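Cross-check.
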Amino acid sequence: MKHFSDSHTEKACIATAITRHDALIDIVALEDEHFYNESNKIVFKALKDLHKQGERIDIIALRNALSESGNLQRIGGQNYLVELLQEQTIVNFKHAIRTLAKLSLRRKLFTLSEKINDLTKTNVENELILNEIENTIRSIDSINKAEFIEAEKLFDSGIEQYDITGKFLPTGYEAFDSRLIGLFKSELIILAARPGCGKTALALNIATGISKNKNVLFISLEMSPSQLGLRMLSSDAMVDSDFIRRGIINDSDKNKLNKSREKLRKLNMSFVESYTLDEIIAKIRKISQYKNVELVVIDYLQLIQVTTQNQRYIQVGEISRRLKLLSRELDIPILCLAQLNRAADDRVPKLSDLRESGDIEQDADVVLFIHKQPEEKGNIVNIIFAKNRSGKADARAEMIFRKEFTRFFDVDNNHFEEI
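Predicted model, tokenized:
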């Protein structure tokens, strides 16, 4: 990869940093990997360390630092430092910095091409190979993007940039939208409950409503697409799902189900079965390339498998963190279901009740709980707003859950109660 390097420019940048303090700050913003020549890399690292420590940078300080670290002889002794100082300093040092960054990128791309070549000779699944390539490209791309933005640039667009119009998806439920406005782009929303409380039903209801006009991707680790389809039919037609399964439906119900079937066929919703985090992320990215996916629903978080051998709570933290990064990368909301600990059976749940919580509560922008009070009669359930990064939390609203139809309804004149 020597043809993707320029030792002369590397030396000139270091010499300029030593002799011109107006260039020092820009040059030390480079990374070690921008220097290909090993001796140049060692000297640059020593120079950067001195700068971090607030030390005055000159040839003597550099020589002493290299000597103390045992690296002076590795670069060829003091003679190499003298050579550096004999390099002509660069007037247009910013151009030289861009040159080193460009060459470093070329080396990474060359390494990536070799990696692709090696991977294609293995028995690794194609989707995992693609995911590995995409992750590498993204890591390269993120390094080459600007690391900061000036205030002047930030406010160039005027106050219009803060207008939320078009940046969220209404859920269709007053209980949610009057509090959250909707599901916002780039946000990770956690909807958690104990088993049997309706988290899948509510997620399907929301996804069904949104998919009338927007593309929705529903990833299920718990149910097959046919099982989800049955729930959607039951919910839309208002026919008991148990009756449908048993085949004990009358003519009226059959008519309702056929009408619902025709209506549901027109939805912009896709279903995927996946079990590992890498597969899920790879499939979301792949489908997003040819479909304008505007909402992803995952059912549910604790069933996702990861390849690392860490303790489970650390794995769950990795899952929530990568899902949050994915929501930002694709600029879409990700609604991820989760399970609560048994402790939430007999009291109002709290963030610490998220099962194998890891960093879920830290990574999520919004955390919602479905909870039924032990003393509550009938079909009334509470939606608890446990976290809302962009607004108020610590409130709850009532909804109606008709379990036989796997369908949620707003309560008339719904009001919020602070908790």
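The longest strand covers residues 380-388. Confidence is low (pLDDT under 50) at residues 415-419. Passed to J.P. for a second look.
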